[in-house]
Amino acid sequence: MLSGLVVLLLLLLPADLDALYTTIIRWAAALAAVALLVGLTNLVNVHIEKASGGGAAGANSITLLAAFGLTFLAAFILGPNGAAGGVEPANWLFQYVQVPVEISLMALLAVSLVYAAARLLRRNPNVFSIVFIATALLVLLGASSLATGSFGLLSDLITGVRNWITEVPAAAGARGLLIGVALGAVAAGLRILIGTDRPFGG
To answer: Are 74 and 97 in contact (CB under 8 A)?
Structure first.
């Protein structure tokens, strides 16, 4: 509570105390780095226990530990931009492992979205279900070759509709969610600062 109130006061007081504010923020960054190390240590410990149990879960844990160790050694020994034999291991792992995995997850998300929309339309056919599945299909078509290819007016129409969906209603919904998250974070922070909630004190 004291740390939070000090930072809040430093934001409101004159600029002469900027050095103190910067010092406290650096302390917070150092604590966040320590928390990250604690989280990584916990992750390794949990998966070591799972790996010792065998089975499919054990194989997945071994894969995770091997990937974690390889990535950690590459970044620790050579640095984030270090190169060995003309290859930057950290960037290579990101481009040829992390990015393909994320693309695969996005593809699964697209398939799951269409499947869920079809089930929704079958179980509860109303205007909102139709709007949902039509929007999902238009966005997916906007990322297909129909929009990126040379199909003349059809490509321009699909691209325009997709851009409007992502820039107007989708952006408005995202802003609403972010405003809600921000208000919730402010409310939770104030409750902790005034002592109503004590997440670390019981």
So the answer is: no
Distance of CA 130 to the CA centre of its chain: 29
The answer to whether 113 and 134 have CB atoms below 8 angstroms apart is: no
Contact predicate 51/65, CB 8 Å: yes
DSSP secondary structure string, 76-117?
HHH-TT--BTTB-HHHHHIIIIIHHHHHHHHHHHHHHHHHHH
Question: CA quadruple 91, 93, 94, 97: dihedral positive or negative?
Answer: positive
pTM score of the predicted model = 0.54
Contacts 24+ apart (CB under 8 A), 8-15: 8/193
Angle of helix 99-123 relative to helix 127-142, nearest 10 degrees?
A: 150
| 106-116 pLDDT, tens digit each | 889 888 888 88
DSSP letter, residue 196: S
Q: What is the pLDDT of residues 14-35, one digit of tens each?
A: 666 777 778 888 888 899 999 9
